[in-house]
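step=predict obj=Carboxymuconolactone decarboxylase family protein n=152
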Amino acid sequence: MQARLDNPATLLPEVLPAINIIYKTTHSAGVPARTLELVHMRASQINGCGVCLDMGARKAKQSGETDERLFAVAAWRETPYFTDAERAALALAEAVTRIADRPEAVSDEIWADAAKHYTEKELAALVLWIAVSNMFNRVNAAVRLQAPVNFG
């Protein structure tokens, strides 16, 4: 599949500082980097974003993630590899990514489970990071960007 245009962030470099601020802020709010990588990967799996899956797996490995856990992200409910906090974050990622699939986008049950494991600041970071992950997925899908991509 041919890309429709180059990476939009390189064509409009003025957006990079804003994206970097969101990235740095969400990644400094107290949520473990490995958890943020997992939710990014799960959203990217749902949205079929090969670029984000490729980059996400690489970053997750740099954060100390194991192949065993990376291979199981899509089936996180059926595997023993994830903590209760990670499971709550993954459920939140799925709900936020699939907001149109149910009458209540994020159920009270999913939110309450996440709130048992994360502070309000951490929940804010998770929600923003999931939203940004979905933005990346949608941009990459729209322009048919292919992995691997150098965003640096």
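step=describe
DSSP finds eight helices and no strands in the chain.
step=end
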